[in-house]
Amino acid sequence: xxxxxxxxxRARTREGAIHALLLLVSSLFAFAxxxxxxxxxxxxxxxxxxxRVEVRFKTSALTPPGVRLEPVLPERCREVGERRVGLxxxxxxxxxxxxxxxxxxxxxxxxxxxxxxxxxxALVRVELADGRALRRVLRADEPAWQIPPRQGxxxxxxxxxxxxxEHILTxxxxxxxxxxxxxxxxxxxxxxVTVTAFTLGHSVTxxxxxxxxxxxxxxxxxxxxxxxxxxxxxxxxxxxEGPVSPLRRRPWxxxxxxxxxxxxxxxxxxAEVGLPAEEIPLALLSFNLGIELxxxxxxASVLALGLPAYGVLHxxxxxxxxxxxYAMGSLAAFWCIxxxxxxx
Length: 344
Description:
Helices cover about 55% and strands about 15% of the residues. By secondary structure, it is of the alpha+beta class. Strands 4-5-2-1-7-8 form a 6-stranded mixed sheet. Strand 1 (about 40-45) and strand 2 form a beta hairpin.
């Protein structure tokens, strides 16, 4: 039997490692798809004259049994009138009014109970009587927040940076697309250029949508994002046989184009939080930077896991490498059908 060149063996070793890692991550994504991850809760407080506050509390209608998310308001706030309960898409919304006295909400401590049990975060949006708008992201380790006289730039950076990291790392569709790019171009300069093009693409539409320059419904955007993953999976399934397709010849063009779609998805999550009126550029920059840090951390983790496996995974049969690609395409097709059905 002829001895294969060392470069060929090394290339196949790298390909086997990436395929095996994609199989593992695809399985995790499939589990996540069937679990329907919960959207963040939203607590909106609008302060009126004489300490009167309108409360709007929005939670996912898919909250697991036994989990109860409730807004936590200062003890001095007395509820007046009846609660109004309704549905907005896949979310349950409760509206009611409280009277917090002359001090109002400034300096008060507000929060959401049940975040640890529900495994979700909560977005707090406060509009004070003096016209200031404040935002805060609450989590299981920080379920309450004291409303400050004025929210400084440091708090804005920390809150939106962390929210951006968490959003990308809990978004299996975005991560699966980035993983597909890694499998398509391999490790090296091409990966850097392709991922950078994806970053530029989603940064453009994220900023445009967040600033109100582009307005597109989230439903069709989510369907198109799933379609972009399906197109990438089809290209991966073709392999290197036959003529080189435009996607392989210029992968950065494809990643930039699809990045425009993914940026609209990121903007939808940011719209739930809102942007502080006095710090819009800083909040937008911090959120986008958080997405990039999460993306880099994900790719670094994948490559770090793949390096030790190079010496073993190339012994697997060639057909094993097809399994993760078909799993990726099947999952993307499921997302397309599921999200399209939700539109109707």
